[in-house]
Specification:
- Helices cover 29% and strands 18% of the residues.
- The two termini are 28 Å apart.
C-alpha cells in the first residue's frame, strides 16, 4: 500500500485518480480548495489552496507519491509554474515521487514534430494553457536528477465533456500522440487513472513523460 496525495483531487482527472487508488487499497488524500459533495469513500479530503506553502508541505509530508492535477485556468493562470517549482523542491528534499497530469498539446504528431499545438488548427483560446503544460514538462526535465518524477499526457480528447467508460484496454506511449485507425485520440478518465496508478505501483517512466490513449 502506498500513501498517495493528490493536489486537485476533486477535478476530473484528480477525482478519477483518487477513486482508482482507493479501489486498489492505497491510502489516499485529496487536496482542493473546497470539499466535494460526492466524496470517494475511503479517501481523506483536505481543503486548502495550493498557493499556500503549508498545504504543499502537508501534501508531501509522509507521502510516497504526490500527484499534481492542476489546471492553469481562472485565478491559477500564471501561478501553476510556481506551485510546481515549490512542490518539486519539497519532493526532492523528502524523497517523494512526483507525478504531474498535463495536457496532450505538447505531444508530437509524428516523430520529429511538430507538437500538436503547433501543427495548425489548435484552438487559440486554450493555447496559453497548452504552453503552460509544456513549460511544466520542461521544468521537470531540467530538475535535479535526485527528483523522481513522471508526467502524464492524456489523449487529445479527454475531459469531463467526454467521460467515456472504464475499459481496462488502452495503450501507453511516449512523446508521440497516439491515435486509432481513424485518427482519433481518446481516453476516459477512468482508464487514464488506471494507467497512472499502474505507474505508481510499478514504475516504468522515471523522469519521463508518457501518454495514454485507446
Amino acid at each position: 500500500m502506498a500513501t498517495i496525495k493528490v493536489l486537485g483531487g476533486t477535478g476530473y482527472a484528480g477525482s478519477n485518480i483518487v477513486r482508482e487508488a482507493v479501489k486498489r487499497g492505497h491510502q489516499v488524500t485529496s487536496y482542493s480548495r473546497t470539499l466535494p459533495e460526492d466524496a470517494v469513500s475511503g479517501a481523506d479530503y483536505q481543503a486548502g489552496s495550493v498557493l499556500d506553502p503549508a498545504v504543499l508541505a502537508d501534501a508531501v509530508a509522509g507521502a510516497d507519491v504526490v500527484i499534481a492535477s492542476l489546471s492553469p485556468r481562472g485565478d491559477m493562470v500564471g501561478k501553476v509554474e510556481g506551485v510546481l517549482d515549490a512542490l518539486a523542491e519539497l519532493a526532492k528534499d523528502s524523497g517523494v515521487r512526483l507525478g504531474v497530469v498535463g495536457g496532450a498539446a505538447s505531444l508530437l504528431v509524428a516523430p520529429g514534430g511538430p507538437a500538436l499545438m503547433d501543427a495548425g488548427g489548435f484552438p487559440e483560446e486554450i493555447l496559453p494553457e497548452a504552453r503552460t503544460g509544456q513549460a511544466l514538462l520542461e521544468a521537470l526535465k531540467a530538475s535535479d536528477e535526485v527528483l523522481d518524477w513522471f508526467y502524464v499526457s492524456p489523449a487529445a480528447s479527454f475531459g469531463a465533456w467526454v467521460p467515456g467508460e472504464a475499459t481496462g484496454q488502452f495503450r501507453v506511449g511516449g512523446d508521440i500522440l497516439l491515435t486509432d485507425d481513424e485518427g482519433n485520440s481518446n481516453i476516459s478518465g477512468a482508464d487514464l487513472a488506471t494507467a497512472i496508478v499502474d505507474e505508481i505501483e510499478t514504475p516504468a517512466h522515471r523522469r519521463q513523460r508518457f501518454t495514454v490513449a485507446y
